[in-house]
Amino acid sequence: MYNKDGVKMSKFKKNFHIPCECFFPPLPIPEIGPIVAYGNFWQSEFITVPAGGLFSFNQIGPIAGGVSLLNPTTISITQAGDYQVDFIASIDSSLISSFPYEAGISILLNNNPIPNAQGSFGIIIENSVSITCNQLTGQLILSVPANSTLHLTNIGNNNISTCDNGINAIELTIIKLN
Fold it and tell me: Which domain of life is it from (predicted)?
């Protein structure tokens, strides 16, 4: 078989052209993984926090992604997401005069307690013991809206005095999970 110009054509008509106006939808924008956000803060000096008072931080470790120390008692978080929040407080029990002694620390999100006591942690020291520096720890996963603040507050009825022997008085770590 030959075309009108005398060129031999194959049986599959390779030189045959069909005009086409094709529509291809735009490719979706690829999802980028979570933006890294974290912060580490601690207090290196002895402090006494009254009932209802806020714990302060005077040292800043690695920070990224909008987690920062806004002022000595306020952590700022600019990105929304789920965060793991951990703290360790060293409580000086050598200054306690009556037992049992109860201490409690709560994490406040935007100046409010976390519902259902999820962010509230406590310790009871029953009597005077040889351990004079007790640790109160707390850990939770928290959904944080954009442009939020975090505080640690003394929710007990007693002052909380931190240990003063060259260790961190209180430490707070925040890590974005998603």
Answer: Bacteria
Q: What is the gyration radius of the CA atoms in the chain, in angstroms?
A: 30
Alpha helices in the chain (DSSP H): none
Average of per-residue pLDDT values in the chain: 88
For residue 46, give the nearest of 103, 7, 91 by alpha carbon. 91
The pTM of the full predicted model, rounded to 2 decimals, is 0.79
- Inter-residue contact 57 to 168 (CB < 8 Å): no
- Residue 146's identity, in one-letter code, is A
Nearest Cα residue to 173 out of 33, 37, 80: 37
For strands 59-64 and 148-154, give the pairing: unpaired
Please answer whether residues 114 and 159 qualify as being in contact, where contact means their C-beta atoms are separated by less than 8 angstroms: no
Residue 159 to residues 45, 101, 145: CA-CA distances in angstroms?
A: 16, 10, 31
Instruction: In whole angstroms, give the CA distance from residue 178 to residue 173.
Output: 16
- What confidence category does residue 17 fall into, taking pLDDT thresholds of 50, 70 and 90? low
Residue type, 65: G
List, as own/partner pairs, every contact residues 120-123 make where C-beta atoms lie below 8 angstroms and the sequence separation is at least 24, other chains included: 120/155, 122/155, 122/156, 123/91
User: Taking a C-beta distance cutoff of 8 angstroms, is the pair 143, 28 a contact?
Assistant: no
At the topology level, CATH places domain 38-176 in: Jelly Rolls (2.60.120)
